Amino acid sequence: MKSKIKLRIDGIHGILNSLVKVLAFESNIDIDRHISKGLYMKLLFSNPIRTIKALAGKDLNIGYADVVLTTVCTLKCKGCGALIDHNNNQCHYNVNKIIETLQHLLEAVSHINRIHLLGGEPLCYPYLYEVMSFLYKQEKVNIIGITTNGTLMIKDKRVLKLLRDKKFQVDISYYGESVSRKQTELKQQLEENHIKYILHTKGSNWIDFGGFNRRNKSVEKLYRIFTECPFKWCRPIFDGKMFRCTRSAHGSELGLIPLEADEYIDLSRDNYPSGKLRKELYRFLYTPPIT
Ligand SMILES: C[S@@+](CC[C@H](N)C(=O)[O-])C[C@H]1O[C@@H](n2cnc3c(N)ncnc32)[C@H](O)[C@@H]1O
Ligand code: SF4
Prior knowledge:
about 290 residues, alpha/beta, binds S-adenosylmethionine, binds iron/sulfur cluster
């Protein structure tokens, strides 16, 4: 019962957090991932109409979404959240389908504050430039990140040029000198091209999610685990769908776990014609399934 209430409160937090990120961006306030309580409240109270519209689902903002371009990767990290270490059929997702899916999603929402392009390894994706340039032109998208593992440099000159725009940021995951072996050269390349980047070290942030055996946890316990997951707002998008959880999305793709109907939303136009998608997204994103 307690966890069910927490899930509902989580949904309201999700709505307000997403709106605050968008409002901060519009006010040129660089909050990145942290914001003080005072500033948070100030932003909401100085925009009461947008706050009410957001709570009612009329102004639909997404704080953060991951776009999975590929499951091809230069590494096979044990315990990878995208389950690349379990994937023997790595593939690139169809670029036209990715752009069509994003187009339809963007018609339904007011803003997406931050989209991250990842995989697998996004620098392996042959159509990275095409996806980047599509997103670059979208006024509803505020920030575009590319998360890379530090094993590759950027070969495509068009990608390098576009990345110079302030809308972009590169996130380098650093897995140690011997693994992220091109990290120093990549950093140098980004600096020379005046491209914003952040370096993340694996360290204690690496989570062991365990295996895929059924653990027979109670529904109450599952709710609690979900509300405490640091990645619960990741919202991975691939294969025309937006999922609640990266691990369950890739787990079901690989046939390791069943895909339940309430764990994803099919973003295709055939499924939700324009106009209907906004309402469904609001339900999917901010009112988690409670049985
Ligand atoms: C799935 S990776 C894809 C991008 C790229 N290949 C990389 O490793 O940076 C996206 C992000 O998820 C993080 N990640 C993957 N598995 C994780 C885990 N088990 N615990 C914590 N972070 C994880 C990675 O460090 C990376 O920052
Ligand atoms: S580099 Fe990234 S995508 Fe590749 S296996 Fe490691 S965490 Fe997963």
